[in-house]
Amino acid sequence: MSFTSINPQALKAALRDGQELALLDVSEDGQHPLGHLFYAVSAPYSRFESIVARLAPRRSARTVLVDQGDGAAEKAARILVRSGYSNVAVLAGGASGWKAAGYVLFQGINVPSKAFGEDVEHAYGTPSITPEDLKARIDRGEDLVVLDSRPFDEFQAHSVPGGICCPGAELAYRVHDLTPSPKTTVVVNCAGRTRSIIGAQSLINAGIANPVTALRNGTMGWRLAGLMPDQGKTARASAPSKAGIARARAAAEAVAQRFKVPRIDRGRLDAWRAEAEQRTLYLFDVRDPVEYAADHLPGAVSAPGGQLVQATDRWIATLGARIVLTDDTEVRATMTAHWLIQMGWDAHVLAGGIGTSGLDEGSGTAEVLGQDDAIEVMTTGDLKRALDTGRTAVVDVGNSQAYRTGHIPGARWAPRARLGSVLATLPRGHRVVIAADNDLVAELAARDAEGLTAAPVSMLAGGAAAWARSGFPLATSPDDPPDAACIDHWFWEHARRRFVPKNMQEYLDWEIELPTQVKEDGDARFRIAVPR
Question: What is the pTM for the complete model shown?
Answer without folding.
Answer: 0.95
